[in-house]
Amino acid sequence: MKKALITGITGQDGAYLAKLLLSKNYKVYGTFRRASSPNFWRLQNLEIFSKVHLIPADLLDMGSLIEAVKISDPDEVYNMAAVSYVSTAFEQPVGNAEITGTAVTKLLEAIRFFNPKIRFYQASSSEMYGNSGTKIQNENTAFSPASPYASAKLYAHWITDVYRKAYDMFAVSGILFNHESPIRGLEFVSRKISNGVAKISLGLEKELVLGNLEAKRDWGYAPEYMEAVYLMLQNNTPNSYVISTKESHSVKEFVKLAFEEVGLNWKKYVKTDKKFFRPLDVNYLCGENSKAKSELGWYPKTKFKELVKVMVNEDLKRWKKFLNGEFFPWDAPMYPNESKIAGRQSLKKL
Ligand code: NAP
Ligand code: G4F
After folding, report:
1. Among 16, 26, 121, 149, the one annotated catalytic
2. Is 187 considered catalytic here?
3. How confident is the model at residue 339, as a pLDDT?
4. Is 125 designated active site?
5. Which residue in the list 72, 84, 87, 125 is annotated as catalytic?
6. pTM, two decimal places
């Protein structure tokens, strides 16, 4: 039986990846951070909570990473943990640099000392391309980070490359474009929209306040992207791949489709507020996935329209169940209306 260690198993990707690896008969270990309240709703939602082995660890604490590698004694390590929300990385740039960036060296060192034969996956991001000025981004497109998050991810990307070349380790990065799902965090725009639309259609909210509606992203479906991640570590040779849909759509298009799904006109409900604009944003991303197609046999199946539909309908179903008094693992009732969060990101633009 193969063993895998996933950092960030409580997050969207970590949870879907754990489910995938369990279906392939892996013994799955995952790191979690102690919080004052439990944070395992995604694992419960995917019905795998009792099947994974949890190890307390923090990317800031090298000792805990060594311990996690020692306890799990894995064949594969997937580093999914990071300050994954770009706005938070603007608000906490130093913490982000350490967690998203330099912590990856700590993890690679732990692996190198314990067992350099362990295969390592680093969660790189299309955000590293920034505003590259190119119509489509592939594995050879020059990086041009436009946020503290992207800068830290780029460090992690390159250090993974260095460990592969210097120590002959099977250490690879997947350059994943945005991928969403019903278990996406509520702060990301896709889920903010699907949750907001569900609430508006049920009369629980009156409006949806957003930032830059013109930004374009290449949006795919998260569970499918975890299949690509898995395939990268089963490859004969360690290699980096872009994982994307090769389609780019604006936030405005997402909003329009989401409101259409519940029969409403978005223009009546959506407002913008400078508070949700970033000090610097990435305007356009679109990924070329032909290398992944030809070498991994991976291609995306869920189209943009279908993704929006799935997310809106799942949030709608949840709110209806909630209003019926049903109890189930879910994040939204505990989440504050973002308009009430005062944040430093607003200062520059106000
Ligand atoms: P997510 O849902 O926000 O999950 C992030 C995970 O990182 C959570 O489990 C979180 O733990 C953990 N984490 C944060 N700080 C940590 C620390 N100091 N020590 C240990 N764990 C820590 O993000 P995601 O969407 O699943 O993304 C997974 C990875 O892929 C991230 O590295 C992200 O940057 C990258 N990525 C994501 C996308 C995308 O579109 N989703 C695209 C490209 C790259 P808590 O639950 O305790 O907060
Ligand atoms: O959903 P977002 O916060 O995702 P973003 O910044 O693209 O980052 C995500 O994808 C990256 C891959 O490219 C990952 F590496 C990263 O971890 C994360 O998963 O924002 C998408 C776009 C941005 O241009 C943002 O300015 O939507 C725009 N936007 C407009 N209004 C908003 C809002 N974003 C958020 N979060 N909230 C808004 O109200």
Report:
1. 149
2. no
3. 76
4. yes
5. 125
6. 0.98
